[in-house]
Write a structure and sequence with these properties.
This protein is of the alpha/beta class. It has 9 helices and 11 strands.
């Protein structure tokens, strides 16, 4: 039995004042009217939420904003103040293993900068990682559609250092789920981006044969543990 209701239910219908859902696997209709009514009544009986001051999170760095710091970033890299950039982002979900992304960001050395985007960022975008000479160590580019900004930043830095993107001190650590993330992954592959880490599970369309092709041609790797992967990248 699937744990996510979205994996179980793919059809719904209303008959009079009754609500029915049909499960994917057995195609049986179930009357959820009483369940929903009880949930609604329970919600109405709950006390009102109290206001609570939350933490301010800075997000939505456009690539033009980040590239406005290009001179400082290039200088920090050349001076050894920034050792490596990690783009940690992608989709999120309830499946076990996604705490990996929080842990790897927390464990990265202080001379590393984290770029992030997509729903996966909510695992860690509230962390205070400080800065390096005024350059934030955690740069939130926005949602998955802002993958374009990440590509523009990588391309601009590659141009500034006169190297290819794969030669930059940059590692992509992607959290996978499916949907339009497929298009983003295919875009990265079309740009010949190599040495990406993907987890906690592989995309469903990557069969053993497809995985071998991607490993042979793009050096794609499955995540292991934060400590082991950091060591593999930084030595």
């Amino acid at each position: 039995m699937a744990s996510d209701i979205n994996e179980v239910i793919n059809e719904a219908k209303v008959r009079g004042k009754r609500i029915f859902f049909r499960d994917v696997e057995y195609r049986n209709w179930y009357d959820y009217t009483l369940v929903l009514v009880n949930l609604i009544e329970k919600a109405k009986a709950c006390p009102a939420l109290t206001d609570k001051d939350g933490k301010t999170v800075v997000t939505g760095f456009h690539h033009k904003t980040v590239l406005g710091l290009a001179d400082k970033i290039i200088a920090a890299v050349k001076e050894g103040k920034i050792r490596r950039f990690f783009l940690v982002g992608g989709c999120d979900g309830a499946k076990a293993g996604r705490n990996y992304y929080t842990e790897i960001v927390e464990k990265l050395p202080r001379d590393c900068v984290v770029l992030t985007l997509g729903c996966g960022k909510y695992r860690f975008n509230n962390l205070d990682l400080g800065d390096i000479d005024g350059i934030p160590r955690l740069i939130d580019l926005g949602q998955c559609n802002n993958a374009y900004s990440a590509i523009q930043i990588a391309a601009a830095l590659a141009g500034a250092f006169n190297v290819g993107v794969n030669d930059l001190p940059l590692t992509l650590v992607l959290s996978w789920f499916e949907q339009k993330a497929v298009a983003i992954l295919l875009t990265l592959l079309s740009l010949d981006i190599k040495n990406m880490f993907i987890g906690p599970t592989l995309p469903a369309f990557i069969t053993p044969n497809v995985l071998k092709v991607l490993q042979d041609n793009y050096s794609i790797r499955l995540i292991t543990t934060p400590d082991e992967d950091i060591k593999a990248v930084l030595g």
